[in-house]
Structure formats: C-alpha cells, structure tokens
Amino acid sequence: MTIELQNISKRFGHVKALDKVNLRFGGQKIYGLLGNNGAGKSTMFNIITSRLTASSGEIMLEGHPMFDNDAALNQIYMAGEKNYYPETMRVNEALRWAAKFYTNFDSMIAAKLAERFKLPLNKKIAALSTGYNTIFKVVVALSTNAPVLLLDEPVLGMDAGHRDMFYRILMERYNENPCTIVISTHIIAEVAGLIEHCIIIKDGRIIKDAPCEELLHNGYTVSGPAALLDNYIQGKNILSVSSLGGLKTVCISGPIPNLNDLPVGLELSKLNLQDYFIQLMNDETEVRL
User: I want to staple 133 with a disulfide (CB 3.0 to 4.6 A). Which of 100, 128, 140, 190 is the partner?
Assistant: First the structure.
C-alpha cells in the first residue's frame, strides 16, 4: 500500500510548516521521519490523516485522492500526541471501543500487550502518567493491524525499560504482520537500528529521502588518543568531533579507508545515523554523503 504526497504545503498564518513536500511511503518497510522539534513532522502526519487540511497539494493512497475518502483513511492508523478518547473513560473500555471502530483490531493482541507493559486497565485515561498515556496509544496502534501505521514520537514520556520493550514489540508485530510503518522522532540513536529508509525534514522541507545504508555508505568514524587522531584527520572533511579525557572520536565524510592505512592505536567504525543527522541539521550544504 502506497501513500504519495504531491506538492504538499501548509501555512499557519505567516509560518510555513511544510514547503512543497513530495514523498512516497510504501512497500512494507519501516521509515524514519527524522527532524528537530517544529520541523513539520506532526503537521505532515495530521495532513495525511485529514486531521489538518493542506494549504496546497494532494495526498494519494494507491493512486486515489485521500481527501474526504473514508475507505482510504480506514487503511491508516496514526498514534499521535493527542488523545481522542474521553478522559473519563477507563482504559479497558477504550480498548473495547477501539475494537468496534477498527475492523481488523485484535483484542487478544491488545490484552497481551497491555499485560506486557503492565498498563492499568481499570484506570481512567486522564489519570495515566505521560508514559502510560503513550503506552495506551501504542497498544491501540499495534493492535489495529492497519496496513499503514504512523507513529508520532511513540516513546514520549516512557522510561528506558518501556522504550526498549516498545522497540522489541514493534519488531515482533512487524514480523508477524508486515505493513508500512513511519516513525516520526527526534531521538535518532534509538531508532537507527530499526528503520530501513530515512526521510529527514528541516524547516518544513525534505532535505534527504533515501535508504539509510545509502546515506551512510560514504562516511566513517575514527577514535583513539587525541594527539594521534588530530594528526590523522588533517585535510579530511570532518562531520563531528567528541572528546572524553585524552580520547577523541571524529566522524569523517569520505571513502572508508583500508584498515592497513590506519595508524596503530586508532579504531575505525561505520558512521552512525545520529552523527550524520546532527551535522545535517547544523549545515546541510556541507554534507555530501
């Protein structure tokens, strides 16, 4: 199932939240929609699901316009920051209503996920902590069996243990029921191992749209004693530098060198997505990977 954004722009007064965005999601893969806060990620999701109307452009699902198309919208589930259930409703009641609204909702999966997360079913939604409110929303999302899942900051407020559990469960559900998943987040390090295709957005514009492997194939990281490393990196295109005591780590743009050409005492590793993203946010014109 393929979603296509064609020249999508969105203005809020004088602010342009999205600027002529052209994108395609599909192919039963996991996408990462990466960007800093305010980049336009949530706005894009809300336009795809018709919670917001684009100022211009069109959204297509399998070649058919999604505007005012309930059949198309039923193929997509979005878990976002806002809760659309009455806050006085208890969690178990909300899960029963979800089963009525979503044709393919699996109540047994929802019950198992709630148990694994220790989600308090008898508690009112309004009484849930921020972390458990997020857990409630992802339990619903992962139980819908929708062909397209849009997850907007899906670990907001979760502690480290719950975040780790979420990522493991997400992959379990993806393997059991392959679908198109788009994860919108600014926490790059935690999703880097999950996503197959990277879309990076800055100030409402798409600045990168490619498989993660393609983005990172022409860069590398070198670490070791600071003095030795400073000498090695002379004349190289530096992406980022970090230091701890007498040790230093440098991310470099360029072909990965032969290990035999690396001075003894330095260690070579692949460039990671977070380092690439940080440099891109600082100055996208200087990155040529």
Answer: 128
